[in-house]
Every structure is written in structure tokens, then in C-alpha cells.
């Protein structure tokens, strides 16, 4: 890939936690997303691993009493037999996932606590999550020192004894670095604590988190929402983790038991949002410019994930309409050249696809996935699909390098190079946000703005403001101000999903 001119010098900083775990217990580095298996408690541990792998997660926190697999009804707990443990290890290896934690776990005696820690050490866990009685702290601290397995204190909502984070801090203070928080930000919100502000104060003592975005704050019955769509300011929570260089695992624990398809969709959207929140400029994250998949930022109206009762609590994002109908009945394309299946629109070869409707000013959001050497694009405001080259604006999609910087992903084809070159990994989904308002065109990839241009500066046909030539017979300042939106098939594989558009008044 290009190193001069477009690739900005990387800003590197050592991610050093104020509160350090044993070196062998830390994840690969930085903020990692994992799964608390309780999210899929209606399924087996093996099936929870399937969902974790589908969402790109590498870490999982087991909870007691989940069945191991469809053919093994034994629970994933500290009472597993040697054969059960071998099966769990094989399941983990097959999915490329590491079992890093276990909890929330309780024990009734010293013997059982010893069994819990022996199990954790044998399975290579970095910590156990628990809510121990005050008289047990000395014992679990001793066992933690003996085994090297950290202890994390979980908090449920009021009236749980650890609902107040100061209570947790006071309880762990005498016992050293191997005992810290497993902070549940959803229960903080339910108990009246501002999650982001509480993270700011207590993050140096947090080993891991159960992070949540809830329908309401200060309400015990509040339920999970897709991350970024709720009322508990999850963007500010992630921003605080980034500001303090948190080095640990953030576990997704979705407690709201939706029907399976909806739960799968909402958790997948949450994982997608979280990765974009990590990649976005911090200012954009704090300002709320990283919307959930299927949303666009803007109006203070109800969102589309849920029914009216759920909507009432969280009115931050505008519901955008799908760009294409599932049966492509509102599209123009040659039969057999595109397929819309399971929410993914895939080019099958032979032609581009166009909206039947025209758009003037709008915010367009979509995910795209490339294969090696994919070349594609998103056409804006096309007035003549037979002559799209000179009647449409093309936002470039490209996997790999290009001799012309103005052909790199996120740039306006042959017109304007992106601010920097984004390295597009084959097979991975990336999020495009494209805003067209008047003569202004803005493009962001995974929350990072790479293009911000004013078409009024392109005054001459075939010539760019920087003096370079382009191939267009129409000056870009004279391009149509309204037209169709299209997706390009350029002879190489490309897929799209979560295509939504919101007209701008």
C-alpha cells in the first residue's frame, strides 16, 4: 500500500493500564470485545461460541449452568468432568476463541472456592467474576495469589450490596492488584449512576466490563438496546475507555431475551457499532456521529429497532428507509446480475444496480465487503444511467492500491483523493457514511471522515482544482443536483448490506 503523501504518520502510544493484571492474563492489547455467554442463555455454550465467532469475537466469559453442547447436557461450570473440559477446549479451538473468564460464580464453602480457582487455573482463565460476601474476601484474595487468577467484583442493580461502585472500591482496596471490578455499566445506569462518569472515576480499578446500552436510565426495569441506539450514552462509555487507554476485555452481555432472529440481529449490530466506535475519531464518537447500523444521525425521533413502547425511551437516531426493497422491486438492474439474500446484496456479474427513485440531498449509510482486488463504487445523483460517467458522482470502492490517488477507496473517482488511504481487508465489512448536501460531499469510512469537498471548486470540464486532468466532459460543479443512486459492478466481487438513506431537508 502507499506510504507517502496519503498515509499519515501513525500516532502510537503504549497502552499501559494504571491497574495491571499479571502479564500472562492480559489480552493481545488495547480494548478487546468479548462475549458473556449469558447473552445466548437460550442456547448451549457451543451455540454461543458460534454467535461469538460470527461477530468476530475472540474472547468469551462462561457462566455457570449453561449446557455444553446439543449432545452434552452437562453444565459449563467448575464441576465439569475431565471429558467435559476436553470437549469445551475442542469447541473453543475450533472457533478460535479463548475462554478468559467465568462468572458470575458463587461458592458456599472454602472447599468449593478452592474448586472454583483450581478450575480457573486449569482452564487458563485470566479471572473469575463474583459477588462475594465480605467475610470471603480474605480467602479469595489468598486463592487468587496462589493461582494467579484475578478476582473481579461484579455489580447488579440496587439493592445489590455492590450496586454502589464506591462500595466495591472500599472492599477491594486492602487486597492488591489481583482484585478489581467486573463493572456492569447497565446495572450502574439502572441504579442511578452515570455510566461514563462512573467509568471516568473508577476505570483504574476495572479489570473487565459488562457493557450495555439501555432503553432508560435510573429505571430498574430498563432493557438492552442495540449499542448506540439506547439512552445510557454508550458512545461516551467507549470514549472514556479510549481516553484512559483501557487494556482489557469488554464483554457483551445482552440480558433482554428477544426472539432469536431479533437477538442475533441486535447483538450483531452492537458488535458492528462497537468496532466502528473504536475506529472513529474521538471527537466524532463524543459528538454522536457514529450511528448504529441501519440508522443515520440527525433528527430527534424514535428509532426502528423495536415496538412503540421500547422506542419511547430512546429517541436519538432517525429511522432511515431502506435503499432497496428485499425483492429489489424498486431497483433497475438486469435480471440475474444482483441477489438480495439474508440482508446481503451481492453482485452476481454483468451490470450495475440503480434506485428507481431519485434523491437530491441525503445521508446514505451502507456496509460494503470486498474480495481481493475488488473495484466498485457508489454512484450519486445520476441523471442518465446510460451515461453515468458524465452524469453521476462516484464514491470509489477499491481493495488495494492505485497509481492515481483519486481512485482510492473513499475518494471521489478521478476528482478528489481521500485524506488518507484506508487499508481494506478482503472479506471484512466496512461502513460507508455518505452525505450529499448542495455542492458539499462528505464520505466517512468506519466513522473516520476521508472526504469533504465542495463541488463548486470544479469549474472546468476535464480539470481538477489542483491542475490535474480528469476524464469528465462535464465540470463537476455542473453535475446534476438530483438523480438516482447506484452500486457498481466492475467485474470483481462486492457485497453490500444495511443500505439505508435519509433525505435531508
Describe the structure.
The chain is an alpha/beta fold. The protein folds into two domains: 272 residues, TIM Barrel (Alpha-Beta Barrel), CATH 3.20.20.150; 180 residues, Sandwich (Jelly Rolls). It contains twelve helices and 25 strands. An eight-stranded parallel barrel has the order 1-2-5-6-7-8-9-10, surrounded by six helices. The N terminus is likely disordered.
Oligomer: single chain
Total strand segments = 25
| Terminal-residue CA separation | 40 Å
Whole-number mean pLDDT: 87
Topology of this structure?
Blueprint: E1 31-36, H1 45-54, E2 59-62, E3 67-69, E4 72-75, H2 82-95, E5 98-105, H3 110-122, E6 127-130, H4 137-147, E7 150-154, H5 165-172, E8 179-184, H6 185-190, H7 195-202, E9 206-211, H8 234-243, E10 248-252, H9 260-279, H10 282-286, E11 295-296, H11 308-311, E12 318-319, E13 321-322, E14 331-332, E15 338-341, E16 344-347, E17 353-355, E18 362-370, E19 375-382, H12 388-391, E20 393-398, E21 429-437, E22 440-445, E23 448-454, E24 484-487, E25 494-503
Parallel strand pairs: 1-2, 1-10, 2-5, 5-6, 6-7, 7-8, 8-9, 9-10
Antiparallel strand pairs: 3-4, 11-12, 13-25, 14-17, 15-16, 16-25, 17-24, 18-21, 18-25, 19-20, 19-24, 21-22, 22-23
Main attributes of the structure:
Jelly Rolls; TIM Barrel; 505 residues; disordered N terminus; 2 domains; alpha/beta
Amino acid at each position: 500500500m502507499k506510504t507517502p503523501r496519503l498515509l499519515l504518520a501513525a500516532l502510537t502510544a503504549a497502552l499501559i493500564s494504571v491497574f495491571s493484571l499479571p502479564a500472562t492474563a492480559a489480552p493481545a492489547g488495547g480494548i478487546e470485545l468479548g462475549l458473556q455467554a449469558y447473552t445466548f442463555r437460550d442456547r448451549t455454550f457451543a451455540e454461543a461460541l458460534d454467535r461469538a465467532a460470527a461477530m468476530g469475537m475472540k474472547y468469551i466469559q462462561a457462566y455457570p449452568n449453561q449446557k455444553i453442547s446439543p449432545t452434552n447436557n452437562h453444565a459449563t461450570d467448575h464441576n465439569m468432568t475431565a471429558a467435559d473440559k476436553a470437549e469445551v477446549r475442542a469447541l473453543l479451538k475450533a472457533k478460535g476463541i479463548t475462554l478468559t473468564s467465568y462468572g458470575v460464580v458463587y461458592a458456599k464453602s472454602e472447599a468449593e472456592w478452592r474448586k472454583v480457582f483450581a478450575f480457573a487455573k486449569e482452564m487458563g482463565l485470566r479471572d473469575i467474576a463474583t459477588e462475594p460476601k465480605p467475610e470471603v474476601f480474605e480467602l479469595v484474595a489468598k486463592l487468587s495469589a496462589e493461582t494467579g487468577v484475578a478476582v473481579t467484583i461484579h455489580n447488579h442493580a440496587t439493592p445489590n450490596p455492590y450496586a454502589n461502585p464506591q462500595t466495591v472500591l472500599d472492599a477491594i482496596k486492602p487486597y492488591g492488584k489481583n482484585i478489581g471490578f467486573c463493572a456492569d455499566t447497565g446495572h450502574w445506569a439502572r441504579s442511578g449512576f452515570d455510566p461514563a462518569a462512573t467509568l471516568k472515576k473508577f476505570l483504574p480499578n476495572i479489570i473487565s466490563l459488562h457493557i450495555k446500552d439501555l432503553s432508560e436510565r435510573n429505571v430498574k426495569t430498563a432493557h438492552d438496546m442495540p449499542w448506540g441506539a439506547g439512552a445510557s450514552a454508550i458512545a461516551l462509555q467507549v470514549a472514556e475507555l479510549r481516553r484512559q487507554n483501557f487494556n482489557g476485555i469488554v464483554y457483551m452481555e445482552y440480558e433482554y431475551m428477544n426472539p432469536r432472529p431479533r437477538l442475533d440481529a441486535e447483538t450483531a449490530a452492537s458488535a458492528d457499532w462497537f468496532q466502528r466506535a473504536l475506529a472513529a475519531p474521538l471527537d466524532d464518537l463524543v459528538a454522536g456521529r457514529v450511528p448504529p447500523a441501519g440508522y443515520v444521525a440527525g433528527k430527534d425521533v424514535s428509532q426502528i429497532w423495536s415496538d412503540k413502547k421500547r422506542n419511547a425511551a430512546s429517541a436519538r437516531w432517525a429511522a432511515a428507509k431502506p435503499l432497496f426493497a428485499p425483492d429489489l422491486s424498486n431497483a433497475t438492474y438486469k435480471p440475474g446480475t444482483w441477489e438480495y439474500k439474508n440482508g446481503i446484496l451481492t453482485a452476481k456479474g454483468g451490470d450495475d444496480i440503480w434506485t428507481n427513485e431519485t434523491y437530491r440531498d441525503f445521508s446514505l449509510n451502507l456496509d460494503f465487503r470486498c474480495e481481493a482486488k475488488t473495484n466498485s463504487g457508489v454512484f450519486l445523483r445520476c441523471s442518465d444511467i446510460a451515461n453515468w460517467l458524465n452524469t453521476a458522482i462516484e464514491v470509489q470502492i477499491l481493495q488495494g492500491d492505485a497509481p492515481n490517488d483519486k481512485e482510492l477507496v473513499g475518494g471521489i473517482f478521478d476528482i478528489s483523493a481521500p485524506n488518507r488511504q484506508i487499508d481494506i481487508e478482503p472479506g471484512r465489512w466496512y461502513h460507508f457514511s455518505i452525505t450529499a448536501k448542495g455542492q458539499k460531499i462528505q464520505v466517512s469510512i468506519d466513522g473516520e471522515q476521508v472526504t469533504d469537498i465542495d463541488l463548486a471548486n470544479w469549474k472546468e470540464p476535464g480539470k481538477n482544482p489542483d491542475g490535474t486532468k480528469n476524464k469528465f466532459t462535464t465540470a463537476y460543479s455542473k453535475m446534476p443536483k438530483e438523480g438516482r443512486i447506484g452500486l457498481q459492478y466492475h467485474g470483481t466481487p462486492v457485497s453490500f448490506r444495511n443500505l439505508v438513506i435519509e433525505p435531508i431537508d
